[in-house]
Design a protein that fits this description.
three-stranded antiparallel β-sheet; 9 helices; 15 strands
Length: about 290
């Protein structure tokens, strides 16, 4: 074989080897993960029915092929694309687990159920508990501070219109305390418009007696929610000793909030007009008749 042909063959062989090496070095597409890809995993062991919060999940690098149903964060999200990152996280926040998961175990879409799904409440409710949806006035914790899994108190505010003293025209009181938020529905509030005073519908986990109290309270006045601390050391009102419990259970009247109301002077009521009368004689008797 001529030397020139041998050199050409060696060159082509070397070129082929270079092409193969370059192709192998390229990132694999499809279901293969790059070194920057991450999957969402639990930070601690979680039981079935747990509502997922930010602290419950984290990103963990993965290698190899993506398993079906895993919630992945692509490379561009890892490198600073916060929109892609938030989109991935939003799939699980507020969702409930269908099964128990160990610490560091990947979260799959088949393992979670979201608010609005048909079986969400059946999975998230504790044994013997009930779920009640209540309209909550805008303002305070009821606008944007709440998330599924939070603990709240329910406050009833009433305004009386039958001419009581100014100091007694409005009153607020805690109706039920330390309830778990299961879901928050904002669809109706959004459809009502940005300038509407329409509140949210919040679903709470309650006992049957608490459900009855909240139902009556909703007929009496306006309901608001107060976000509780997640500190394990906070003692619910119902567990306080007698005197302390009685003091904290006392309703707060308008006069307790604004002492100025006690000094306000209402305009005097007008005296009723005196209607003229006419004496009507019936024989020897005289009867006074008021003119209308």
């Amino acid at each position: 074989m001529p030397a020139k042909a041998i050199l050409i063959a060696l060159f082509l062989l070397s070129l082929g080897v270079v092409v193969v090496v370059c192709v192998e070095a390229l990132p694999q597409r499809g279901t293969n993960a790059t070194e920057a890809d991450e999957t969402l995993v639990t930070t601690a062991a979680l039981s079935s029915g747990s509502l997922l919060h930010t602290k419950d999940v984290t990103w963990q690098p993965v290698a190899g092929k993506a398993e079906p149903g895993q919630i992945r964060r692509p490379a561009n999200a890892v490198n600073g694309n916060t929109d892609a990152d938030q989109q991935a996280r939003s799939e699980v926040y507020g969702a409930a687990l269908r099964i128990n998961l160990a610490a560091g175990e990947p979260i799959r879409r088949s393992a979670i159920v979201k608010p609005g799904d048909r079986d969400f409440l059946q999975i998230v409710l504790s044994p013997g508990s009930r779920a009640i949806a209540i309209p909550v006035a805008t303002g305070g914790a009821s606008t944007s501070l709440l998330a599924p899994g939070d603990r709240v108190d329910v406050i009833l505010t009433q305004t009386f219109k039958n001419d009581p003293p100014l100091t007694r025209r409005s009153v607020g009181e805690t109706v039920v305390e330390d309830l778990r938020v299961l879901a928050i529905d904002t669809a109706d509030a959004k459809s009502a418009g940005a300038n509407s005073s329409f509140g949210r519908t919040v679903t709470l986990e309650v006992t049957s007696q608490q459900a009855e109290k909240i139902s009556v309270a909703a007929e009496l006045g306006k309901l608001s929610l107060v976000l509780r601390s997640n500190s394990a050391g906070e003692i619910p009102l119902s567990f306080l000793p007698g005197p302390a419990k009685t003091a904290m259970e006392s309703p707060i009247w308008a006069g307790d909030v604004s002492p100025a109301l006690g000094q306000a002077v209402l305009p005097p009521k007008a005296n009723p007009a005196v209607q003229p009368t006419v004496d009507v004689l019936h024989g020897i008797k005289s009867v006074a008749v008021k003119l209308q």
